[in-house]
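Researcher: Here's a chain I'd like modeled. Treat it as a single chain, no partners, no ligands.
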Amino acid sequence: MPHALITGASQGFGRALLAALSERGWTTTVDARDATALREATAGLAGVRAVPGDVADPEHRAALVAAAGERLDLLVHNASTLGPSPLPALADLPLDALRRIYEVNVVAPLALTQLALPALRRAPAPTVVTLSSDAAVEAYPGWGGYGSAKAALDQLAAVLAVEHPDLRVYAVDPGDMRTAMHQAAFPGEDISDRPDPASVVPALLALLDRRPHSGRHRAADLVSSLR
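Model: Modeled as a single isolated chain. Structure tokens:
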């Protein structure tokens, strides 16, 4: 039975992916900062090990990897932080906020990957997924902190794939989704027209099923290829 570690699984895409993998019979180790929300997200799901905590905390990362056990088939770096809301211009972005963005969105995924590599290498088809964004490749006003962090994470994923050809490493841009983070990026706006995160999950499942070469993928392209 394959095992996945998913960060940020209490809501949004992480929660939708957790439900889909559980339906497929996977066991999972998951985290989120909000213990109550994580408990609600995992209620009724079999084979879930829930470890609440902040992925930027080294002790929490160690506890996550320990809970995952000896073999890990899939590591999904879904947890991230947007930064201040409303989104400030770079000229006004507090440097402490920028440091937090990079700590959560860049440093923590790399640190967690480093800890998880031994368990990943024990799997027959080890895969690492980082959640990207179009803000990693496009310049949008106000998105300098978050976008530059996602660009850095994209590059880490690309280099990891080159350094570890035994892994499949995918940076996945899910596109706009109806999530709390997306709402925070557009405070006061109606985002009900954005896709539900569950509608994006088939794109990631397609990657897991097909296992193409490592690289960056747009969920919209993957979903189109399923039709």
